[in-house]
Amino acid sequence: AQSVTQLGSHVSVSEGALVLLRCNYSSSVPPYLFWYVQYPNQGLQLLLKYTSAATLVKGINGFEAEFKKSETSFHLTKPSAHMSDAAEYFCAVSDPGSARQLTFGSGTQLTVLP
Amino acid sequence: ETGVTQTPRHLVMGMTNKKSLKCEQHLGHNAMYWYKQSAKKPLELMFVYNFKEQTENNSVPSRFSPECPNSSHLFLHLHTLQPEDSALYLCASSQPTVLNTEAFFGQGTRLTVV
User: Fold this and answer.
1) Out of B88, B90, B101, whose CB is closest to A94?
2) Tens digit of pLDDT for each residue in A34-71?
3) What's the Rg (C-alpha) of chain B?
4) Would you give the DSSP letter of residue A17?
5) Chain B: nearest CA to A101, how far in angstroms?
6) Which of A43, A93, B17, B98 could be bridged to B105 by S-S, CB 3.0 to 4.6 A?
């Protein structure tokens, strides 16, 4: 069985500061990993994905994430936060090769302070 | 615009009403999903359809009835709902293969049961 844990349901950063959102996964096989962003009253939008190629993955809006197998982590980072980054972020895992649907974490609400 | 369209965006219904949510995707995907997103809860997968066949029903009450007439359309029929069913209902689609399991989400229907 696969699962995702997002540490910190709420994270606040100042505008211009580093954004770090944590995600740890559990999977019996090498997983595919995803980060999604959700703005208020909107659906989820894919930010980036890891599918067993490069361990450092770059996504949209300046975000990137690094797959670390030894730590079973896939943390999301952005060097400099912008006010428009305020949203909820979801980490998700899927089991490649079995056509399984995604398993989502509980989400992290990011607040950006002026 | 993700290629997945949900209607209506907002719906208010009484507990004795019958209504339907509609989802349409123009991405050529073979899998479609219904998720429920309640406040302060993780995303809950409700139903999965692959090639128009229901492949998963995650213990969803019978007052929610899905229908998938073709691979581009997915409905969620609602009847005799309870106030705790108020939530954001998200539709998603994907083309689950060995290389690609990401899901594309609609903007959701905000349902309020009064």
Assistant:
1) B101
2) 999 999 888 999 999 998 778 999 999 999 999 999 99
3) 13
4) S
5) 7
6) A43
| A106–chain B nearest CA distance, Å | 4
Torsions phi, psi for B83 (to 5 deg): -55, -30
Q: In a 10 Å sphere around its CB, with 0-12 CB exposed, 13-18 middle and 19+ buried, how is residue A98 labelled?
A: exposed
SS3 B84: helix
For residue B85, the 8-state DSSP code is: G
Candidates A60, A102, A103, A109, partner chain B, best to mutate (most B CBs within 10 A): A102
Please tell me which residue, B105 or A95, carries the higher pLDDT value. Answer: B105
Tokens representing B7? Answer: 């209607």
Least Cα distance to A43 among B69, B63, B6 occurs for B6
Q: Looking at residues B80-97, what average pLDDT do you find?
A: 91
